[in-house]
Amino acid sequence: MLEEFKTFIAKGNVMDMAVGIIIGAAFTAIVTSLVGDLINPLIGLFTGGIDFTNNYAVLAGDVAEGASLEAAREAGASVFAYGAFIMAIINFLIIAWVVFMLVKMVNKVKDAAEAEEEAAEEAPAGPSELDILMEIRDALKK
Q1: Strands 78-80 and 57-60, sheet pairing
Q2: Closest by alpha carbon to 92, among 36, 53, 44, 52?
Q3: pLDDT tens profile 48-65
Q4: Cβ(81)–Cβ(69) under 8 Å?
Q5: Which of 142, 134, 26, 46 is nearest to 94 (CA)?
Q6: CB neighbours (10 Å) of residue 39?
Q7: Is the pLDDT of residue 124 over 70?
Q8: How far is 59 from 78, CA to CA, in rounded Å?
Q9: How far apart are the C-alpha atoms of 57 and 69, rounded to whole Å?
Q10: CB atoms < 10 A from the CB of 74, how many?
């Protein structure tokens, strides 16, 4: 069983998946920081700091008027937190846009690198070793 496990782990797909998960976790932290620390504040400047997080409706329980969503939850009230859901949708759209732009940029760089490689491959190559040897042979025959 141990040998079978070693064989499974040593397969390339498993290692590729592990690397992808690790890089994905790091990338998630970068994108979350980019959105939360850079993009959302800029959007807040243009929208006047709109934040729907504390918009909710009390379904059951007593909550002081004007209390934050966190305070309402701590009071044990049953709340319909539609504002937090709206903010989650907005954040998702922002993150999706940022990821789209990053992927687009990476694809553009990748395509440019592939075009350079193709151009280098298409460059006329000099005579092969066999061609040179055949020329020498022909010259010696003359």
Answers
A1: antiparallel
A2: 36
A3: 767 677 788 888 877 788
A4: yes
A5: 46
A6: 17
A7: no
A8: 5
A9: 9
A10: 11
